[in-house]
Backbone:
């Protein structure tokens, strides 16, 4: 693994980690009223497209970290639809 892939993994891990505090807060408070449904949906759509791009060019940093981010974004979308 070269340094460019390491930078890609670190960037992706930080991006995925950015969702974690909000997911935890939303799970505990059972409230997502302050989160925009559009923000979550557009973010998830963008992450899905990054995932497709990563698969096409076989970039493991893109594939693994965007899958993690997309999973968290989809869970936020679920929480938003469940708790409003």
Residues:
């Amino acid at each position: 693994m070269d340094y460019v892939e390491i930078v890609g993994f670190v960037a992706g891990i930080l991006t995925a980690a950015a969702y974690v505090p909000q997911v935890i807060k939303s799970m505990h408070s059972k409230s997502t009223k302050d989160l925009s449904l559009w923000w979550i949906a557009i973010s998830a759509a963008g992450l899905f497209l990054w995932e497709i791009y990563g698969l096409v060019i076989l970039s493991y940093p893109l594939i693994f970290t965007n899958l993690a981010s997309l999973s968290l974004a989809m869970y936020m979308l679920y929480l938003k639809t469940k708790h409003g």
Remarks:
- DSSP finds three helices and no strands in the chain.
- The CA atoms of residues 18 and 44 lie 14 Å apart.
- The chain has a mean pLDDT of 95.
